[in-house]
Amino acid sequence: MGRQKPVLLPKHKKLLRELGENIKLARLRRKLSTAQVSERANISRPTLHSIEKGSESVSIGLYLQVLVVLGLEKDLLLVAQDDELGRKIQDANLSTNERAPKKK
After folding, report:
1. Residues in CB range of 26: below 8 A, 6 or more apart
2. Rounded to two decimals, what is the model's pTM?
3. CATH number, residue 59
4. Phi-psi region for residue 33, left (φ > 0), alpha (ψ -120 to 50) or beta?
5. For the HTH cro/C1-type domain, which residue ranges apply (predicted)?
């Protein structure tokens, strides 16, 4: 039995495709071949192709390995750095429980 693909909304699939395209463009700007990047990231060329297509079935760890090869790993730190909604909730002093309430 194989792994199940996550079910994503079309707008979220578009985000992943854009991420994959950005990774591909970064590779091309550095004049690196798919063989070079896949070897350095210790992944197969088909997996790199899936990443560059924005496949949702590829683990985030493999995306990170490719970003490391391209020298872009610190870009992951930008995710959720400016959490506007979280800051609004914090500013409104809304209480958030440590855990969800127990079901009865």
Report:
1. 70, 72
2. 0.78
3. 1.10.260.40
4. beta
5. 23-77
Say if 100 falls within a structural domain: no
pLDDT at residue 64, as a whole number:
96
98 found inside a domain: no
For residue 3, the model assigns a pLDDT of: 67
**Residues near 70 by beta carbon (within 8 Å), at least 6 away in sequence:** 23, 26, 27, 30, 32, 37
Q: What pLDDT is stored for residue 91 in this prediction?
A: 79
Q: Tell me the residue range of the domain where 45 lies.
A: 10-91
**Total of domains in the chain:** 1
3-state helix, strand, coil in the chain (%, to 5): 60, 0, 40
- Top pLDDT among 79 and 24 is at 24
DSSP label of 44: -
Other CB atoms within a 10 A radius of the CB of residue 72 amount to 15
In the three-class reduction of DSSP (H, G, I as helix; E, B as strand; rest coil), residue 1 is classed as coil
In a domain, 2, yes or no: no
The letter for the amino acid at 31 is K
